[in-house]
Every structure is written in structure tokens, then in C-alpha cells.
User: Which sequence fits this backbone?
């Protein structure tokens, strides 16, 4: 690793630590209200209005809430795919069939995740998605996303690229997580839009 890459990783860690600490300070009412507003804003996206298949995720803890959005998409007749973490940090996928179809899974010493309990569709299933809703901690003015550092979605984005798949990439965040600059590395791929409780911001189209 070059000195520049090492500095970028260190800066990412510090930005991630600061923003996750701010999330942890949110109260339950704030998280619930933000989740309702986030769903309302996201459902206005034309990409979601056109989508037949959306790859998403189930929020945990104080992450920007996604369940209301997942249920609204499913009510529209959209096929919603949710991730299941594999031992190597890659992601398998399963279909969302309502909140009762989720299973709480603890992977080692990490926070428990809510994963689909139905059949696994394989890591390649994400390549069928018209939209991929990405978790994140921040995004900057160029559309560079800061993830949680596990690398799972870097693998997903690389898989999409290898398959020649070009879904819309959208990150869901709180308002204060749209920042001036995210330190980026060569493997980082920009998103097309960020949805926050107060609105949608678009970035340059990479296609």
C-alpha cells in the first residue's frame, strides 16, 4: 500500500468514527421520524418508480431506517432483494416477503443483522437489480460513498461491473452525512444519488 492510500484509509477511519458517534447519539424518536421521511423522499425517485427489482438492505441500530421503504416498494409490486452476509464478507441475496420473513443473525462478535429467511439466490442475483440501495456513513459532492469498512459492497459493485450491469446506485443517509469530501481510493465507485430525510441530491451520471 502506498503512503497516499494509507493516508486515505486513515482519514476514512476517522470520518467514519465521527459520523457513527453522531448516529449513536440519536434518540429512538429521531430515528423513527427520519425513517418515515426517508421513505417518502426515496419513493419520489423516478428510478424506483420504474424499477422491477431493487436490491436493498435492512437497517439496524441507528442506521437510517429502511423497513418502511422496503414495505412500500413491495406494496408497489417491486421485487426486493436483501443481503445475507457470507463468511468471507461477500453477500448472498434473498427475496423480501415482509417483516415476518426476516431472521436475526449474529456473525461472530458483530452486531446482529436482519436477513431474509427464504431461499438463497446466490451472489449474482444482485446483477438483476434496476436499483441498488447502498448503506453508507457519508457521501461527498462527487458522489463518493464512505461505507462501514467491511468491504462487502465493494465486492457487490465490482460484481456489477464485471457483469456489465448498470443499476442506479443510491445511498441512504441522514442530512448531516452529506459532507464536503470523502477520501477516495482507486476501487471506490461513485453513486448517482443520495436520499436524506430532507431530500434527494443527484451527482454526475457515470453511464
Assistant:
Amino acid at each position: 500500500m502506498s503512503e497516499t492510500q494509507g493516508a486515505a484509509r486513515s482519514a476514512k477511519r476517522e470520518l467514519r468514527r465521527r459520523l457513527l458517534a453522531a448516529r449513536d447519539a440519536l434518540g429512538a424518536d429521531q430515528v423513527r421520524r427520519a425513517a418515515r421521511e426517508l421513505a417518502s423522499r426515496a419513493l419520489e425517485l423516478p428510478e424506483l418508480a420504474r424499477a422491477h427489482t431493487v436490491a436493498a438492505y435492512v437497517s439496524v441500530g441507528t442506521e437510517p431506517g429502511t423497513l418502511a421503504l422496503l414495505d412500500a416498494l413491495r406494496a408497489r409490486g417491486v421485487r426486493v432483494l436483501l443481503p445475507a452476509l457470507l463468511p468471507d464478507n461477500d453477500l448472498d441475496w434473498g427475496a423480501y416477503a415482509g417483516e415476518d420473513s426476516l431472521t436475526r443473525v449474529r456473525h461472530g462478535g458483530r452486531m446482529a443483522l436482519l436477513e431474509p429467511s427464504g431461499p438463497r439466490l446466490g451472489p449474482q442475483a444482485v446483477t438483476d437489480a434496476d436499483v441498488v440501495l447502498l448503506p453508507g456513513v457519508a457521501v461527498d459532492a462527487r458522489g463518493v460513498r464512505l461505507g462501514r469498512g467491511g468491504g462487502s459492497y465493494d465486492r457487490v459493485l465490482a460484481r456489477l461491473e464485471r457483469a456489465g450491469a448498470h443499476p442506479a446506485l443510491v445511498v441512504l443517509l441522514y442530512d448531516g452525512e452529506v459532507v464536503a469530501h470523502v477520501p477516495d481510493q482507486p476501487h471506490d465507485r461513485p453513486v448517482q444519488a443520495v436520499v436524506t430525510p430532507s431530500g434527494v441530491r443527484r451527482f454526475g451520471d457515470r453511464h
Notes: The chain is about 30% helix and 20% strand. The helical segments are 3-24, 28-42, 46-50, 67-75, 152-163. The longest strand covers residues 79-85. The first helix runs from residue 3 to 24.
